[in-house]
């Protein structure tokens, strides 16, 4: 069995060898055939190739060598480039630099865009320059002509320049007393203390009281209280008062007042018993303390009275106008015939020299000059005169016709001559205006409801009439009880109080010049015609005004 298996294996190997031999034979045949095909192809290609000479062949070899050398250099360059490529950070920097360059290029383009416009402007300027050059030539010729004329003109003597001391600005002392001086038309006008002029104007108004006091037939604030030096616990100044005894003699003089009946009502609308003016004033007593009041003045009458400047001292004319609040502002106008020339005020023993000596003695006194443009030479002479007495001074330019002194110094009180109050004129006004006012108040109180109904507008809707009447009733009752009834009795009270006052009293100066103290302008008051509108809750209240701190401070130089 073993032998048979080996014989079988030998037969298998023989078959394999036969197969391999066949394959090799086939491959040889394919190789031979391929070689024959390649030879034919090469032969064909060779036949088609152009003939190459030895020289051309050498040239091709040289070109090949160069190509190989260039290829080698390119490979080296490629390797170096790859080795030197930038990092990401370097790329970012390069990108930013490129952007900056592009931006600069854009800006440059914008700036150079209007270069043509600039060239045009340059051309225009060149044309103007040429024109100006021509004008300069003409001007030069004219100058030569004028120089020739000037050479033939006689020389004028040049005046020596004036030497003026440079100012040394400083604030005047708060307690200083300013004396004012006006220089106009090359003349000196010595104003002095403006308070004295304010009091003179006040006296003129008092002396012409009956012509200037308001006595028209209307309701209004007829009087106000003069304020004295006595202070209350709250620091305010109390009103001046006078005691009046209702003697039998006085009662006989006031018989007419006993026949003037008053019909007053309370604020609740209740009518009081009819009482005469005397009973309303004194009640059941024969003695009463009255506040010293003063009638107000009509502003139109005041301005007409002083408008032409007929009042005032020899050197000045007085003018008044409405001042702050209910006060009267005054101003001074120099008279043409007044004042002192330089020769007069510089003369030894002149009035101006007397004023200088007095100011030099009184410490805290200073001169303040108001200088018109036409009087600077006179000012320098006057200033030199006052400087010789070592009087502090200041000055300012003034170019007006009316002079208003500044409010300095600060003063608390002045002397008020109560005897200048014309008591007889107060009595006349009481007899004239008092009965009319009482009659008007009686009409208001007696026919109160009828007048109230008549005041309702016809076009007012029915639903609003009740509220309209209610509010109007409250406001009219308040006006009558607090204002109208008091105004009706005020002229009688004032006449009695003024008839008793005597002598001088110190009264508070409520305002400084250029406004006159204690002179008030009449402000008429009328019955409310309609209720006041209800306040808007969304409306902001007006800002409160700060109290006045007094007049302006003077600057010395």
How does this structure look, described?
The chain is an alpha+beta fold and 557 residues long. Among the domains are: 1-43; 172-210 and 299-419 and 553-557, no CATH class; 223-295 and 422-500, no CATH class. The protein contains 16 helices and 19 strands. The strands form 8 sheets. It has a 4-stranded mixed β-sheet, with helices on both faces. A hairpin with a 2-residue loop joins strand 2 and strand 3. Helix 14 runs antiparallel to helix 16.
Oligomeric state of shown chains: single chain
Strand order of the largest sheet: 3-2-14-15
The end-to-end distance, rounded to whole angstroms, is: 158 Å
- Relative helix content: 40-55%
Unreliable spans: none
* pLDDT averaged residue by residue: 83
Biggest sheet, open or closed, and with what strands and sense? 4 strands, mixed
Outline of the structure:
By secondary structure, the protein is of the alpha+beta class. The protein has helices at residues 2-48, 54-83, 88-111, 115-151, 194-207, 209-212, 248-253, 255-258, 277-282, 299-306, 342-345, 351-361, 376-387, 423-446, 448-454, 462-498, and strands at residues 170-171, 177-184, 187-192, 223-225, 227-231, 237-239, 241-245, 261-262, 275-276, 287-291, 293-295, 316-322, 328-334, 365-371, 393-397, 413-417, 504-508, 515-516, 555-556.
